[in-house]
Amino acid sequence: MNKTDKKNEERENSRASFMPGRTFFITSLCYLVLGCFSFFYSSVYLFWFFASLILIPVVIIDLALMLLFADRFRVEREIPSSLSQNTPAHVKLFIHRTRFFLPGAVRLYDLYPSSMSASVFPVKLKMKTKETQLFEYTLMPDERGPWYFTGTEFLLSSFLHFWRLRVTHDNISRGRTYPNFKQMARGVDLKGNPENADVKNIRKRGQGLEFESLRDYQEGDSIRSIDWRATSRNRTLDGRLKLIVRNYEEEQDQQILFIIDSGYRLPDEQFDSALEAMHLLSYVALKHGDSVAAASFGARDLWIPPRKGMKAYTGLMNELYDLHSAPVPSSPFSAIEKALTHLNRRSFIILISNFREEDGESLSWILPRINKKHLLLMVSFREDDAEKLSLRGKNKTDEEVLETAAAYSYLANRRRLYRKWEHSGLLILETSPSHISSALINKYLSVKKSGKL
Questions:
Q1: Tens digit of pLDDT for each residue in 99-128?
Q2: DSSP type of residue 97
Q3: DSSP 8-state class, residue 70
Q4: Which of 90, 366, 393, 403 has the fewest CB atoms nearer than 10 Å to its CB?
Q5: Which of 376, 375, 437, 185 lies closest to 287, judged by CA?
Q6: What is each CA distance from 54 to 59, 159, 308, 410, in whole angstroms?
Q7: Which of 97, 44, 47 has the alpha carbon at shortest distance from 70?
Q8: Would you say 448 and 250 are in contact if contact means Cβ atoms under 8 Å apart?
Q9: C-alpha R_g of the chain
Q10: CA distance 140 to 88
Q11: Contact assessment for residue 166 and residue 153, using Cβ atoms and an 8 Å cutoff
């Protein structure tokens, strides 16, 4: 067990409570039935009387032995303090014998958090004298956030199984469950191989690029990139001009701000997809040399100031790993107004929510302040249910006709609003939860290489 794992282990005093076992209930029932028969038959009464003289001392001695000798264990748990959501975690339990005496039967329960799942307990242990047993099992972290093991529990049976002793050892383990690290690792492939995961390779154009070097002209290069001064000084052996072009690199040190809605507009599935896309694009943006800030509104108001460099990604993960949505009111444009008070330079603001027709008026008063200094991308999810209703075929009932008309009107008004925002200079991205990561990265690369920032 390494030092990090030992720090997560806090072994305290154990707690114990005893209860009657199955044998006790069966024996008591038989003794009661025998007593009923002895009321009518004198021969049975003698047998019942002598049985009680033997049975009562045996039950008492069995209880005394269990309480005196049973709890002879010491437990240590080994588990990584950082886990990944929906990725199996390997847990090791080291069960040490402290003395030679053993109960009749031992069942083990590890008291893992409710945010995880396992189907291996209870486990029957068979331990020999002075033996340290290693028990390994797999946990599935189902939810993001902090987790806490409350202890390890043993259910011990006495030798004759008349009694059970429940012993809880307070060996505590704490840690965090982060979004899926495998998805985060895809960011490397996305940056290096833009053709993967539907990420497009976008040609560089515009003024948002920095000059890097000169090179020979290659087929497909833009005529606007030719450096005519350098070309006039370079000729081939036969005296013809040799075309020289300017090689550009993306402008560095730009600022990206993510604002995510943690209120009623984004249910759990959409929110998790949006948060994962934020993590992934943050990784890509930091790799490109940009600084990244983040904010949330709704269930939790959060502000993370701009940070630059890959060390900032770890801090961003630690701030956002336990963020969840809740069915509470949220105002995207109030969140933008708050964010503008923190920004002292031009930024690419990415607002992730679910926008509707009624949001049109809310944006009108803040739009001039945004267009003056910043570039705003509004990311919204498609209304799949409304789209299915609007595409219903023929042979519909009157009620279905009304539902189809209402869905079509709702989607039409929503698209009209998006077109109005685009004409005002905003960027709009409407996508599905399964494609938001690649769509958002494509949009980021397009903006960054177009010079709009």
A1: 665 566 788 889 999 889 988 888 887 766
A2: E
A3: S
A4: 393
A5: 185
A6: 9, 16, 79, 82
A7: 97
A8: yes
A9: 34
A10: 5
A11: yes
Write out the two tokens for 164: 């059970």
**Cα dist from 66 to 19, 110, 158, 286, 434, whole Å:** 11, 22, 5, 61, 57
Domain ranges of the chain: 3-178, 209-250, 252-450
Which regions of the chain are under pLDDT 70? 1-14, 69-72, 99-104, 127-130, 181-214, 217-224, 235-239, 246-252, 384-401, 403, 408, 451, 453
Tokens describing residue 274: 């949006």
Report angle CA 137, 138, 142 to the nearest 5 degrees. Answer: 145
Cross-strand partners of 107:
124, 155
Q: For residues 333 and 62, what is the distance between their CA atoms, to the nearest angstrom?
A: 71
Q: Is residue 33 classed exposed, middle or buried when 0-12, 13-18 and 19+ CB atoms within 10 A define those classes? A: exposed
| Single-letter residue type at 399 | E
CATH number belonging to domain 252-450:
3.40.50.410
Q: Return phi, psi of residue 2, to 5°.
A: -80, 175
pTM equals 0.69
Sign of the four-CA dihedral 301, 307, 311, 313: positive
> C-alpha 423: how far from its chain's center?
36
| Owner of token pair 């030719």 | 226
Residue holding tokens 């910043």? 374
Distance between CA atoms of residues 125 and 105, nearest Å: 8
Instruction: Report the C-alpha gap between 271 and 299 in whole angstroms.
Output: 12
The DSSP code for 196 is G
Second-level CATH architecture of 3-178: Sandwich (2.60)
DSSP annotation of 346:
-
CA distances 157 to 265, 283, 359, 433, Å, are 53, 54, 65, 52
